[in-house]
Specification:
five-stranded antiparallel β-sheet, homotetramer
Chain lengths: 364, 364, 364, 364
């Protein structure tokens, strides 16, 4: 496969460039009978949409989704679901220099050398705009997981630059422009982000994504472990540079007597494992952290070269996120959902008979 | 796929349990014409082998590999290469309790619930012994990469528990039992590991894996990015809990002006990217760090339950690594090699014509 | 995969129902740099289009294709190419009975039992209308093969019902409504088809598809042989019931001394093999025949049951092809092109170095 | 994938050359809990084994299978099952000329050009000996299908050269060296085969393979239709040149009113469909015919060329089947079983909930 398909049984194949006519995806393998309409998908798309606060890009996109197939009389039919999102705010402008220069920290250089050509308008395929299709597909996965297992997936920002964000409550997440599970630090974060923007620079972020009510038994060792596929899924998001499962890098200094979660008749006594042992879900909450690098498009002038290898100076002006991590929460939720539904179907394929005899799974 | 195949064009399908008759793999897609014999593979197997110092498990396995197919007159033929490693030191013993109990931090619980059964002898399929097959396959990938691009892959331990290991020189790595790029701290590390072992406990580790002389252009966005596949590959190794590419979690506090590597006519001015931009290799050294949790099998008694849900106390005696991370370096090298060869073949498939026109790749 | 993706390196994922808003596909893995616009695709779509003669369905569809991504400044970029074809002639009508009844010879019964639901409008996903997406994707594959190897692919009808059609010349194929390589029998065929239509019945057909100028070396034994993949590709077309490669079923009565094509310094002395030996292309013309069953939708009343298992009588009136085989030629060409491009990329991946040293391939 | 893996959820990856040390396979995705030992596999291997009558090759191979993994305490564990069959009768002999010459009708020419090298000993990977691994894997699939659905798979020879073999009874199949469902023509067939062998020539064959008690709903349109995958599976067997499903090429002259099987409250009134409609199983018996070309290795001298393009004369002496089709029945059964188990698991993955509500499937 050429790399634009995610999953093995619930597959999502995406397409679309930042400034092309449209982007979207085909979902193949969605079980039939799931109630679905555009509104189910639009909700998550609206959470990811640009232009919703002054701290993110001011590009204006309605991101309106159209279901082209696979749904009949309000329910999925088991055939491919095609989703279409038209681009509407591709500003016509002079791309002159961008077409011939490689922006530092960007995919310009590598796309050019890989393909021998590139769509330079707005980053083309390498634009974070591509994640709209992921979020749309993920919304379907989330709905199926919720209805089948009661699975709840949530992501939130735990750090922006030097600012660590204390966890206060899940219910705050949707009420601030930072996807922060926090209420008391919001003003402080607003000021921090304003200062970053004014400095013509950008900053990184750290997020956490969790899934509750995941059945035990998901994951296919030895390679397609659940944690391996989560790492793959999160690292495939633009700008992600690190992924941790459970205790993550803190495991390095832990002792075995501390890290290994004891079991009791009422359940596990801890969750350093992040809900995964031996690459298979334990039934506990799945937890992962990931790091997002600072946006590469900044107004501060930087050294680079053009396609002839000549030195140039580049400063990117325009509608860019000073912290791209602030819009990553819905994308991470979508990716985790895509991993989980795929493994749920895989588990069902191989172990259908086991499942019905297993109390943990039967509890669904 | 049921999860035991790695790669898409250079595929490795592994089999084998810790205490079964044998383990091994089939490699499909190895280009023809590569000079290959058992010795090429044995070298890396010997580096991974147990029982080589007092700091690792004392199980004695020759780990002797037999090539069953795919090689004729000393060269690969393009047909599947099957590798066989017989197990020789499966001690006969009474497994009584282990068969019915779930060891904390182990895959016992999840295998039991996933499959409704498990081979409890030495951890069965979930044993780190499984990685011998990976190392064997990786040796072939390393040889092809070396001969085709001059690619050099090396992994080393950068931290054991609280002990950070300073980088001194690559040449030290093979000369101490810790895969440390260090000479001056070895005595200290010996003492540290002795103390861990005597405390009947275990400890985590952090490693770094690097690949030099990687051609530009490897990686298939948007999902099968090179970094995403490296994260998947490293996280699929037993006990790995975190993966970083380049600056990793340090990116969170970096500014865009710091993180984004500038380009100059003579090359990149830095490598925070870890050799990957937009999911595609830049031609720079690829760098990744990963965290390994402390061994779960420890002699300290711990609480758990049996398959009936009754509480039990478990202490694991026997031949276990006090720091499983100390044997992970050859495995990480193998996994990185498997990612790189697979993407090299994928790049060749899609962009054969581009490649010959691209100076960076042509330089191979 | 859930079954709607064709190929491994040049993948085509299709979507769309007969009476839904649109159908189309995503092509992933098309090499960059191929000149491409809508007109390249429209030509083949027009050849497949319904309503072009009185011998095929009178449904009127413009089948106008829109390229949504993957093409920039008139050339492919190496990123996914999405193609969209809006449905325009979905007549609103009362589907009442069709929704609850299973038409003999149709997929109604099996879709209902497989998915527990079905889009009954015009056959939904099981409609031959789905093949428009294949033809669109195939047009791109054909263009690349033509430009890369000079490959020419052509399909034609060799029999309709009892009427065997003598081969006269390739140039006749595009000049009659039967895709017949024949000029002298056309009037006879017109009369035959008129009589079939008037009898309220339908009839089967036999076609032949050929590819000239195929490089030697395509095909991946032991399973993904070129002939096996051609059989899969042709049998995946609606209504196909049989596939032959080369001598096909005539091989049964042949002697080895007759069937095995001798080699001479100037080439093969025959082509009973159909251009494939050991599952790998020989460089000769690839030849395959296939059988298409008579259209199941006929106006003659037939016995069936409804979804409650009650007996019903069904006669299908409306816009149906009396011989669905008459429109199959462009579809077969597309499928053969998709097989060949996929195997060309696979060959390039694994044997790039061999290829340049091989006279037969180098002759491209 | 490089072509040596069959299936998507129940995958079989095979390896091995005719005169290498061994052949075998890894099965990944076998559901856990299936009772399995070597004897289950050996039975089918013995049916395929060479040297069992004077009408087949006189090579003597025990074809003894060893299970290396994936089975514990007599049951499958859900982890990969590796099967090993050592070659024992690779006669040492002078291969001199064969190494440099291309036998007509053989894969010598194509392997040489594809890979730039080939293992010429006994045909290497292209030898029909490779099918032993398929038969071994198929035996496991057959057992699971039999226990899960009561599925019975049987193949038999319906024609040898000009000799059509009348169907008399299934029970005769195992009682003659021709896998003929016939008792009265056996003496005639013996004489016929003797005459072929004495003429230093070979002859083709036609076989039929059937599966009874297949659940409704197997098959994944639009590409991975059950019939398309059966065509792929059968055409992937050495020497197969044609495949028919149900009425096959007879469909060409049929009318729609004849071909389309009517439905009644007690079931289908016919089976021209061969148990498959719209690419999905109907629950009826699946029927397929296939053609096998005459053996290419014959003692009659034939024209060919060597690797330098020089003309040579080749006559193959030694231990060859005068009609390779006579040993194909167990192989076809294995391939059909591998298709069915894979699609059964795929159906279970996507439609687990549908299945339990579907009378036809519930009847299993």
């Amino acid at each position: 496969m050429a790399g634009n398909t995610f999953g093995q049984l619930f597959t999502v194949t995406t397409f679309g460039e930042s400034h092309g006519p449209a982007l979207g995806c085909i979902i193949d393998g969605c079980p039939p009978g799931l109630a679905l309409d555009e509104a189910d998908i639009q909700t998550d798309l609206d959470r990811r949409r640009p232009g919703t606060s002054r701290h993110v890009t001011q590009r204006r996109e309605a991101d309106e989704v159209e279901i082209l197939s696979g749904v009949f009389e309000g329910k999925t039919t088991g055939t491919p679901i095609a989703l279409l999102i038209r681009n509407t705010d591709q500003r016509s402008k002079d791309y002159g220099n961008i077409a011939r220069q490689f922006r530092p920290g960007h995919a310009d250089y590598t796309y050019w050398h890989k393909y021998g050509t590139r769509d330079y308008r707005g980053g083309g395929r390498s634009s974070a705009r591509e994640t709209a299709a992921r979020v749309a597909a993920g919304a379907i996965a989330k709905k199926w997981l919720q209805q089948t297992f009661g699975t709840e997936i949530v992501a939130y920002v735990t750090q922006v630059g030097e600012q660590e964000i204390a966890f206060e409550s899940y219910e705050h997440i949707g009420r601030n422009p930072f996807f922060a599970a926090n209420e008391s630090q919001i003003a402080e974060l607003e000021n921090y982000m304003d200062s970053i923007r004014k400095s013509l620079d950008s900053v990184g972020a750290k997020l956490r994504v969790e899934a509750r009510n995941v059945p035990v038994g998901l994951g296919e060792p030895v390679f397609d472990r659940l944690d391996a596929d989560i790492a793959y899924a999160l690292m495939s998001i633009n700008a992600v540079k690190g992924v941790e499962i459970g205790a993550g890098f803190n495991s390095v200094t832990q002792r075995g007597s501390e890290h290994g979660d004891e079991l009791t008749p009422t359940g596990f006594a801890g969750n350093h494992a992040g809900g995964i042992l031996g690459g298979i879900s334990t039934g506990q909450t799945i937890t992962a952290n990931f790091a997002i690098k600072p946006t590469s498009s900044i107004a501060t002038p930087r050294r680079s070269i053009d396609i002839d290898g000549k030195p140039v100076e580049i400063a990117t002006h325009g509608r860019h996120d000073p912290c791209v991590g602030l819009r990553a929460a819905p994308i991470a939720e979508a990716m985790l959902a895509l991993v989980l539904i795929d493994h749920a179907l895989r588990q069902r394929a191989q172990n259908a008979d086991v499942a019905v005899n297993t109390p943990d799974i039967a509890r669904r």
